[in-house]
From TrEMBL:
Domain annotation HTH lacI-type: ranges: 3-57
SUPFAM superfamilies the UniProt entry points to: lambda repressor-like DNA-binding domains, Periplasmic binding protein-like I
Descriptive protein name: LacI family transcriptional regulator
InterPro entries with a match to the protein in the record: HTH_LacI, LacI/GalR-like_sensor, Lambda_DNA-bd_dom_sf, Peripla_BP_I
SMART domains hit by this protein: HTH_LACI (SM00354)
Domain of life: Bacteria
Keywords: DNA-binding, Transcription, Transcription regulation
Pfam families, sorted: LacI, Peripla_BP_3
Keyword Chloroplast: no
Length: 329
């Protein structure tokens, strides 16, 4: 039989309320009494009944997280930051993965709601009025990251469009005249929520329009972008930059250029976006836009907990970004 609070109270000769205060480190208890209770609880191998506590408190001290997958290193970094900040605040985390499937995402949401999580951090592939009504039906705090749903939902992120415009400005100032843009998620444009990728594309296009670039940019949306680039002639009179909407694509492009014997950045420059932590192992070091992954995760948790415990999200402005200068440009 599991040990209960009333068992510890009987042995220590105190009330169940006194045992509860000792175990949960609440005020209003003599220090010697507290030590004696904790000693008995440890000897009896007492384990709190979190289900019973959740019924009393009306919360489970758990958060749900919905991500695409963990293949992209930036998602893993985000998850680490979320888990660390949640644990600091006394919360545990459920993680669910959608594989970018809108129906899977709804299943993940319902799975987390059924387990009575206190709030959800959502990286969505759904959007639109119908989806927003669906989310509202659960009456649970939800904060969004990466893919914005609408102004109706609290969001933690950066100025994606401006960040890419600044990246283009950097490239033009370095003398690049021809541009290739690589972003396979754009194949889902108009089908699912790809807010971050759309904003980066618009920033790229708007950035080029600010300058008198002679050649139209090449925009590659296909999943087999490497096969497409294999056929590309990089020996051009124009100084060419391959701009990638995330570092993962940029690393694949760098590998291809090495295999083709293309000099980087002599013949062609490569730029990424995210500044994932493995870049320190890559040669030449990738020039990229730093996406504050850890801060996004930490801020999302703090804001969500504020909503859970104080009934209001934190006012978090869009976070800073910066261009990280490497050797690929």
């Amino acid at each position: 039989m599991p040990v209960k609070i009333k068992d510890i109270a009987r042995i220590c000769g105190v009330s169940a309320g006194t045992v509860d205060r000792a175990i949960n480190n609440r005020p209003g208890i003599n220090e010697n009494t507290k030590k004696r209770i904790l000693k008995v609880a440890k000897e009896l191998n007492y384990r709190p009944n979190y289900t019973a506590q959740s019924l009393v408190k009306g919360k489970t001290s758990t958060l749900g997280v919905i991500l695409f997958d963990l293949h992209n290193r930036s998602f893993a970094q985000l998850m680490n930051a979320i888990e660390l900040k949640a644990r600091e605040n006394g919360y545990f985390v459920y993680i669910t993965l959608t594989d970018k499937d809108p129906n899977n995402e709804k299943q993940c949401i319902e799975y987390l709601v059924e387990r009575n999580v206190d709030g959800i951090i959502l990286f969505s592939v759904n959007r639109g009025n119908e989806f927003e009504d669906y989310l509202k039906s659960f009456d649970i705090p939800i904060i969004t990251v990466f893919n914005k749903i609408s102004e109706n939902w609290d969001y933690v992120g950066i100025r994606e469009r401006q960040a890419m415009k600044d990246a283009v400005t950097h490239l033009v100032n370095k003398g690049y005249e021809r541009f290739i843009y690589v972003s396979p998620p754009l194949m889902y444009m108009g089908k699912t929520n790809i807010y971050t990728q759309e904003e980066r594309l618009y920033g790229f296009i708007e950035g080029l329009k600010s300058f008198n670039i002679q050649e139209e940019p090449i925009i590659i949306k296909e999943k087999n972008y490497i096969d497409i680039l294999k056929e590309w002639n990089f020996q051009s009179e124009y100084k060419t930059a391959v701009v990638c909407s995330c570092d993962l694509y940029a690393l694949e492009v760098l590998q291809l250029l090495k295999e083709k014997g293309v000099n980087v950045p002599g013949n062609v420059g490569v730029m990424g976006f995210d500044n994932i932590d493995v870049l320190k192992y890559v040669t030449p070091r990738l020039t990229t836009v730093e996406y504050p992954i850890e801060q996004i995760g930490s801020d999302a948790v703090e804001s969500l907990i504020s909503k859970i415990e104080h009934d209001h999200f934190l006012n978090i402005p869009l976070l800073d970004y910066k261009i990280i200068l490497g050797e690929s440009i």
